[in-house]
Design brief:
It is built from three helices and six strands, in the order H-H-E-E-E-E-H-E-E. The protein is α+β, with helices and mostly antiparallel strands and 130 residues long. A hairpin with a 5-residue loop joins strand 3 and strand 4. It is elongated and about 75 Å long.
Length: 130
């Protein structure tokens, strides 16, 4: 039990350290920066606000940037910004809730369910699964 707690604390410490070194992306409350975005904003202005994207890709006539932004009480949420490929002007942006939910499910699977053991007065052991 003690080893499990130490492991969990270590993992979270590493995650916080890594995301803290990632520039704007990953900073606590960084999702608020999306309030400064406006349609038709040039890509250079977006970089001034959000910093470098995690990755970029071209899809047909669009240039898509991915950021992972921190939202209070939720955690790290993937955001996609869509630019016109030719003009490099911001068309739209959105949080990918489906991707966020898939990531959360992977975290849940990574940590096994815990068991509580209670011994009653008759010496029987009751096991409760959480």
């Amino acid at each position: 039990m003690k080893k499990t707690i130490i492991l969990i604390i270590s993992v979270f410490t590493i995650i916080i350290t890594i995301t803290g070194c990632a520039g704007t992306t990953g900073q606590f409350g960084s999702v608020k920066l999306t309030n400064q975005l406006m349609p038709n904003m040039p890509a250079t202005e977006v970089k001034k606000i959000l910093g470098e994207p995690e990755n970029t890709q071209f899809i047909k006539d669009k240039w898509v940037w991915k950021y992972v932004l921190h939202q209070y009480y939720k955690g790290m949420v993937p955001y996609y910004l869509v630019f016109n490929k030719d003009t490099q002007i911001l068309d739209s942006w959105y949080a990918d809730e489906a991707e966020y939910n898939r990531q959360q499910n992977l975290w849940l699977k990574a940590f096994p369910a815990t068991q509580n053991h209670n011994v009653n007065v008759n010496g029987q052991v009751d096991v409760y699964h959480r």
